[in-house]
Design a protein that fits this description.
Layout: E1 7-14, E2 17-24, H1 37-54, H2 56-59, H3 63-81, H4 88-95, H5 104-125, H6 132-142, H7 178-194, H8 201-215, H9 222-236, H10 248-253, H11 255-268, H12 271-307, H13 314-326, E3 329-331, H14 332-339, H15 343-355, E4 360-361, E5 370-372, H16 374-381
Antiparallel strand pairs: 1-2, 3-5, 4-5
Helix pairs in contact: 1-12, 3-5, 4-5, 5-6, 5-9, 7-8, 8-9, 8-12, 11-12, 12-16, 13-15, 14-15
């Protein structure tokens, strides 16, 4: 449905240039979203896939095992959309304080993203509501170090920003003037908690993501926080027991269509085309996550059975293997800390895993060697 622009323009002056900044109308859309039979079926399919994703904890011996690496893969993908070059291996090496040779600024940004996500999850587990305060706290974590740390971490912007172009006068899109940001974000927060007109959490997340990106409330980091917001809405409203749905890969693969549909919402009020795209992304992403989890379960079982053929050496090797499932890049010192094994015992266990082609030493040095669970890393990296 083409409702006309989903906001109004306000002419203001920045740097001596007259510009037209876009101020979105509060959600939900007016007239209400059209939910045709086809769209209802797509919504039902997306909810079904979301339910399967939420049950991934039933597949895995410990959900945290999947969450640890899956969150980090999302951090890499979401940051790559913003231009970083770091890989999942770079991030895991950085967390081992063994990051020599990786692009430091990039990997710090990715690490900050993990910190922002984990901070938000911890706060919500403590009972803190999904709110503008929480969004600002997560933003403070996101820009706590490295690039962007001078862009008012944790604060809504007080100056005009823009998207594309070298200055506001030739920008592709100019979000709301800073004087409107607090009101726009306040209206978005009320929509997340109070509006009864949207009866599907997936539709709510779809609408809220566009609104957040349109407001662009921060000087930097809006894209990453806006993508995190989707997962946190689904978690907060009970659709996911853990924030496991991350659409960064889908948005990255369909980048041009993503931006085209955001523009259609702003210029023509076509929310339906965006919602369809979003729901298709949920189906794709949730389905992939479930398949990944199942493949990891099969991999762990296959490798455990290999280890159990090693007789007396199996017991120590299994203790090392259990840690490697949680940390697919690791040093022997870290294995010792996490298992209580002595250094020689941990090294012997890792040697057994290498003989079985489960682990591989990736540093080719005598001290502080790093070992990788390569097939595990390969499964996570396939789509990325």
């Amino acid at each position: 449905m083409k409702r006309g622009p989903s906001g109004r323009y306000e002419t203001t002056t920045v740097g001596g240039e007259a510009i037209r900044a876009f101020i979105p109308y509060p959600l939900p859309p007016r007239p209400a979203l059209e939910l045709s039979d086809v769209r209802y079926r797509l919504l039902d399919r997306a909810m079904l896939e979301l339910g399967r994703l939420d049950s991934v904890s039933l597949l895995l011996p410990a959900p945290e095992l999947f969450l640890y690496t899956y969150v980090r893969r999302e951090a890499v993908l979401s940051s790559q959309i913003e231009g970083t070059q770091s890989s999942l291996s770079d991030l895991l090496l950085f967390e081992l304080e063994e990051s020599g040779g990786v692009p430091l600024n990039d990997v710090v940004e990715v690490s900050n993203y993990v910190a922002a996500l984990e901070h938000g999850l911890k706060r919500m587990q403590e009972g803190f509501p999904l709110s503008n305060r929480l969004i600002r706290e997560m933003h403070a974590e996101l820009l706590s170090r490295g690039r962007g740390s001078d862009k008012s971490p944790g604060e809504f912007r007080r100056t005009q920003n823009w998207i594309g172009g070298t200055r506001p006068g030739n920008a592709y899109f100019i979000p709301a003037p800073p004087s409107h940001v607090e009101d726009c974000m306040g209206a978005l927060e009320r929509f997340l908690h109070d509006d009864p007109a949207v009866n599907s959490v997936l539709v709510k997340a779809a609408l809220a993501h566009v609104q957040f990106e349109t407001i662009h409330p921060f000087l930097d980091g809006n894209g990453r926080i806006g993508r995190l917001l989707i997962a946190f809405i689904l978690h907060h409203d009970g659709a996911l027991s853990r924030p496991l749905l991350y659409l960064s890969l889908y948005f990255k693969q369909h980048r041009e269509e993503y931006y085209r549909l955001l523009d259609l919402v702003r210029t023509e009020g076509d929310w339906e085309s965006w919602v369809d795209f979003f729901l298709e992304g949920v189906v794709f992403t949730a389905g992939n996550a479930v398949r990944t989890a199942r493949r990891l379960v099969d991999l762990f079982q296959e490798d455990r059975e290999k280890i159990q053929t090693k007789g007396r050496r199996a017991s120590t090797a299994l203790r090392v293997f259990d840690i490697l499932r949680y940390r697919p890049l690791i040093t022997i010192n870290d294995v010792c800390k996490r298992t209580g094994l002595s250094f020689p015992a941990a090294g012997s266990g890792m040697d057994t895993l290498m003989q079985l082609n489960i682990a591989k030493e990736i540093t080719s040095r005598r001290r502080n060697r790093i070992f990788a669970y390569e097939r595990y890393m390969g499964i996570l990296n396939e789509e990325a």
